[in-house]
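Example record

One chain of 214 residues, shown exactly as stored in the release files.
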Amino acid sequence: LVAPGPRLSLGHWASEGFPGIMARSPSRSPSPPLSSAAEAEVRPPWKKVLYLRQPYEDSYSDPSLNAAVVNANVRRYDFWVLCRGALGIVQQICLICIFVSVWWRVQAGVLSHRLLLLLDGLALTGCGLLRLLLLPLLEVEVGGGGTGELGTRLIADLGALGRVAPRAGLAASMLWTFAPMLRTLTRSWSDDTIAVMAACLLLVHIVLYDYGGA
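Predicted C-alpha cells for this chain:
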C-alpha cells in the first residue's frame, strides 16, 4: 500500500509540469523591440511591382531610384551643325524646283533652247572664274599654305575639270543624237503621262539621293 500524498491542484500541475510527460518550460522574457535598422533587415527587399503586397508605405522610394541618372545618353546638338546637315536636303529640293521652273518656262515659250544653253555656258564659266579669283583670298583668311599649296590646289581643280569635261561632252552628244528618236517615240504620249512620270522620277531622286556622301 502506498501512503496517500498531498493533493495537488490543476494549477500546480500546469505551473510545474506533469511528471514524466513534459518538463517545466523556463520562463521567457519579452523580446526587446526591434530598431528601424533591424526592422529594415527583417523586411523583404522592395520590388517594383503593383500586384504584390509589401510591408512598405505607399510613398516609399527605393534608394536605387534616387541614384538613377535621367537622360544619361542624350546627345546635345548644335543649331548650326544641324543647319549644315540639312543643307544637302534643301539643296536638292531647290535644284528640283529650279528644274521644274525652267522646264515650265521653256514649255510656255518664255525661254528658248538657245538662250537656255547660252545661259548655262555663261553660268558655268562665270562660276569657274569666280572660284579661281576667290580661292587665294579664302586661303589667306583661313590661314592655309603659301603660293605652292595654292598652285597645287589650282592644278588639282583643273585636272578634275579635265576629267569631268569629256564625260559631260559624251552625255551631251548622246542626248543631242538620240533626242529626235526619243521625241518620235514619245509623240503619242499625253502631257499628263509625261508630267506624272517626271514627278515620280523627281520624287525618287529626292528619296534615293546619297545625302550622306554629299
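Notes: The mean pLDDT is 74.
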